[in-house]
Request: fold
Amino acid sequence: MSSLHITLTELKNQSRLLKEAESLIRSNLVDKLYIAALHADGLLRDEKFGENIRARRFALRTRKYSKNLFFQTLKYLEFSFRVYAGYKDKHIRVINVHTLSLLPLGVILKRIWGAKLVYDTHELETETSGLYGVRKKLSKWVERALIDQVDLTIVVSESIADWYTNAYRIPRPVVVLNACHQRKLMKKNHFRLRLGIKEEQKILLYQGGLVHGRGVSLILEAFRVRKDNNVVAVFMGYGSMQSDIEEFSKKRSNVFFYPAVSPSSVLEYTSSADMGIHLIQNTCLNHFYCMPNKLFEYAMAGLPVLVSDMKEMAAFVEGNSMGSVIKEFSPEAINHAIDLLLAQDIEVLHVNAHKTGVKHAWEVQEAAMLRAYANLFI
Reply:
């Protein structure tokens, strides 16, 4: 059986999609798996990811045009035609679309090829902070109109599954968390060795996109006003705020920057910290219900974690006794949560975090996903 996954990304670091692809091939539910993506300079147009997984990045002639509605429509139509032409002879039995905007294309290809359609939504797209006005209304209308054409819906949190069931009166979607592969609890020391951090200092790690809206400025301010150097903050990643962090670290001895590392080695560095932090502001329902992959990376690396008071994240951390919830979005609340965490038995928290990571590891998530795929053809 052949399967086609379609994404509107350039497939640079789509760890969830690739984990799903590898699981499907390894399970023998799928013989050949194709990935359709977008091309960009410096990337291969055709790339192989493991046994029987082939990706094709389509270079669109229209991509150089502006981002107004007319040209965006042209780009979408060109991409859709290229995908159809590229895979019409591949005997596709299952189509998997990874974003709401690809749902219309998925429905059309399903009808043409007589395939099953999987809607693998990576977030609650119609309830994001950047979506409003006409675009929001149109997105909700498209999803509501087409959701009944979907044979399997996959979501990333229990609350999002409940939302889909209540909003569209559909069977409850399958929840597949953004977890990482199982890993033994192994402590590393990369940050202390490479950044000159003292052994007695605790390392609070921020890992991920260094962009606005993730609490980066708030963490910097918390460490600016912090009275001691018993705890230092390490920011590992890349993004528009990288230069701000680098400048801040030159003035403060308790803040450090470390460049992003490859996905294959990220947990080696994660496990070099003592605590993790993941802050998301409650600006939309998507944030309130989110379960980001960084949370599972911290857990698998055995890091107690500080999170903002979002429904799913807070319940996950508190329910598994693996950290603390920051009740207010302020520097004072961050420092208070850090001190509360340090007052606990850190070694117990390390063990709890790792047990939680293993309990929800990708090996567990893939089992739920594979059962759902197998049921498509019963």
User: Anything to note?
Assistant: The chain has a mean pLDDT of 94. The two ends are 14 Å apart (CA to CA). DSSP finds 15 helices and 14 strands in the chain.
